[in-house]
Amino acid sequence: MGTEAETRLLMQDVLDELLEEEYGKGEEDFLELAGMSEFNRHDDEMGNLIGRIYNQMMGQPFPLRFLDEMEAFYDAQTVDEWENSGFMKNLLASTKNISSGNTSGI
């Protein structure tokens, strides 16, 4: 096992290779994600997000199940589904807690 710095460099190399491969495929979903204003011409930002998701996922007892659950959490095909999604319900509840001064549940 390498040092933390070596591990980070290795992960960055793998991520760079993955992004290059995905750009090469030219799939619409990936290109749409990469074109979002948060990532536009800033692969480092997309890489940081991927790294945070990976680290959070690997900190779970069942990483793949956690990833599937998170995907389902954000999955919405229509505006109605989005408005009634778990994400929006949690966001609304958190917003209500913050506006009432209650941050213990956040």
Q: What portion of residues is helical? A: over 70%
End-to-end Cα distance: 36 Å
Q: Quick one: how many beta strands?
A: 0
Classify the secondary structure makeup into a structural class. mainly alpha
Task: Characterize the main sheet.
Answer: none
Low-pLDDT parts are none
Count of separate DSSP helical elements = 6
Overall morphology:
globular
List the helices and strands and how they pair.
Layout: H1 4-25, H2 28-34, H3 43-58, H4 63-74, H5 79-83, H6 86-99
Structure description:
- The structure is a single chain.
- It is built from six helices and no strands.
- With about 110 residues, the protein is an all-alpha fold.
- The longest helix is centred in the N-terminal third of the chain and has 22 residues.
- The radius of gyration is 17 Å and the shape is globular.
Could you give a quick summary of the protein structure above?
The chain is mostly helical. Helices cover about 70% and strands about 0% of the residues. It is built from six helices and no strands.
